[in-house]
Write a structure and sequence with these properties.
With 213 residues, the chain is α/β, with parallel strands linked by helices. The protein has helices spanning 11-23, 49-66, 115-123, 142-148, 185-206; strands at residues 2-7, 26-33, 78-84, 104-107, 127-130, 157-161, 171-175. It starts with a strand and ends in a 7-residue tail after the last helix. The model has no long low-confidence stretch (mean pLDDT 93).
Length: 213
């Protein structure tokens, strides 16, 4: 099985790369690289004391669950195309052509994919991992906002089909991990991510993902 993954460069993204490499013959990764110091270095989020504190909590929870996850460079079946965050929608289909010949396409943590590329991925039935419960919460930081809105029952993750709209594709299933060892929303959010990764990789490996209507 050949898999292409569109993702980013934090520990949770590298964890997924390593998981997928275990169940694929060839894994092609388009990895968008952003700052590893959000809230301090300007990027997708403004640099401010509030955002710095927020991402300290995020990073602490991520480290507790994923540790220092590095891509396993001993695995010869992983091919990575690194680029800066935001570059993806500037890439031509020809530039990406070697990464667009897979059996399965997975998206997690990439920038918002547009244009000809998203049309191609929708036709290929690409799967998106969303760290939130769609259709109620879409976009970023969904589990934080669910708790802020006093909706703890809407915290978790969603495995759904990629679509042109933001986290609006047909839903395959939701993931709601155990709250054991979770002391705050950041722990729970990372637990949701890990559970989503492991459940999808398991279903890809045993073929169950193909049985969803």
């Amino acid at each position: 099985m050949k898999i292409t993954l569109f993702t980013s460069n934090l520990n949770r993204h590298n964890y997924l790369i390593n998981l997928l490499s275990e169940v694929s013959d060839e894994l092609y990764v388009i990895q968008e690289c952003g700052t590893i110091f959000p809230g301090i270095v300007p990027g997708d989020y403004q640099a401010s004391s509030i955002m710095k504190k927020y991402f300290e909590n995020v990073n602490n929870a991520q480290y507790q669950l994923f540790g220092n996850s590095y891509v396993n460079n001993k695995k010869k079946n992983i091919k990575i195309l690194p680029m800066l965050s935001g570059d993806l929608n500037q890439c031509s289909m020809n530039l990406l052509s070697d990464f667009l010949k897979s059996d399965v396409y997975v998206v997690f943590g990439s920038s918002y994919i547009k244009g000809e590329l998203v049309d191609f991925l929708v036709k290929q039935k690409a799967i998106n991992i969303h760290a939130g419960v769609s259709p109620y919460y879409r976009g970023t930081d969904c589990n934080f906002w669910a708790l802020y809105d006093k909706n703890p029952h809407l915290m978790g993750a969603t495995i759904h089909m990629l679509s042109e709209g933001l986290d609006s594709g047909e839903i395959l299933y939701h993931v709601a991990p155990t709250t054991r060892n979770c002391s705050n929303v950041f722990d729970f959010s990372m637990m949701s991510v890990k559970a989503a990764h492991e459940s999808l990789v398991n279903r890809l490996s045993n073929g169950l993902i193909n049985q969803y209507p």
